[in-house]
Every structure is written in structure tokens, then in C-alpha cells.
Design a protein that fits this description.
Blueprint (H helix, E strand, L loop, with lengths): L9 E6 L2 H12 L2 E3 L1 H5 L7 E5 L2 E7 L23 E4 L2 H13 L12 E2 L2 E2 L2 E6 L5 E6 L2
Parallel strand pairs: 1-4, 5-9
Antiparallel strand pairs: 2-3, 3-4, 6-7, 8-9
Length: 142
């Protein structure tokens, strides 16, 4: 069966240390590492972490920026031109993320209520940064 529904497949984040980034996303955010052993063995250029069954975050070493040649000016994408990435979570996962980030002393914004997103107004949302300065919003809808 062919699936014709558009989906977000992956987001590539620039990181200084991919292994440290995986550690953060596993422990503080609760995501599963993908291709970590292959990266550590030098078999693949970067590891990833799984957001859900259909979406991953690729953790691209910042040192690869000069190799980006897919479009003119691609090298200039290093340095966080994206404002933020938003993770929509079920309420329990949202609360668990808040707890893990607090346990790992990750600075977070205040909770907001009613922020607009792809599914309307979110019940609660907040922002945090990863160790490389990438900004994330987490939210849940009821």
C-alpha cells in the first residue's frame, strides 16, 4: 500500500559534539538514539534521535558545514537560521519531559497557554535549548 499523506521526515540540527548531543536527547528529552553505534564506528557521518515512528532529528557535526554543497549557499546554514522546532506530545509525555529537563537543570521558559499551532491552540507549551543552542518548543493539546 502506498501512503500519500505528507509528513515531516527529519530535521537536521548542527551540533558541536554529536555524541554529547545524543546523550542530551536520550537522557534529558527522552528520545531514542538511531545509528549511534554506526557513527561511533565511523561507518556513518552523523547519528540521529527518533521523535516518533515517522520522524527523526539528524545531529550533524558543525564541522561538516563546509561540505554542504547541495545548493549554493548551503554552507551558510550553519549557525542556527531556524527559529525553533516544536514537539507536540501527549499530556503525560509533556509532563515527563518537563520533569526530565528539570532533573537535568535545563533552563526553560515559563509555561504558556493557548499558543497557536498546527492543531489549533495548545493547552500548555514551553521552550528550551539543547546544548548547541537549538531552540525547541514542547506543547500538548487536549
Amino acid at each position: 500500500m502506498t501512503d500519500h499523506i505528507p509528513r515531516l521526515d527529519h530535521v537536521v540540527l548542527w551540533v558541536r559534539d554529536p555524541l554529547a548531543a545524543v546523550d542530551f536527547y536520550e537522557k534529558a528529552v527522552g528520545m531514542e538514539a538511531v545509528r549511534l553505534a554506526e557513527f561511533a564506528a565511523g561507518e556513518v557521518p552523523f547519528p540521529s534521535v527518533r521523535v516518533n515512528d515517522e520522524t527523526i532529528l539528524d545531529l550533524m557535526p558543525l564541522s561538516f558545514a563546509e561540505r554542504m554543497r547541495m545548493l549554493p549557499g548551503s554552507v551558510d546554514s550553519a549557525g542556527h537560521p531556524v527559529n525553533h522546532v516544536c514537539l507536540s506530545l501527549p499530556r503525560g509525555d509533556f509532563d515527563a519531559l518537563l520533569g526530565r529537563l528539570t532533573d537535568h537543570s535545563v533552563p526553560m521558559s515559563e509555561l504558556a497557554h493557548g499558543s497557536f499551532g498546527a492543531r489549533g491552540k495548545a493547552t500548555r507549551s514551553f521552550y528550551f535549548r539543547d546544548p548547541d543552542g537549538n531552540v525547541f518548543e514542547a506543547r500538548h493539546y487536549d
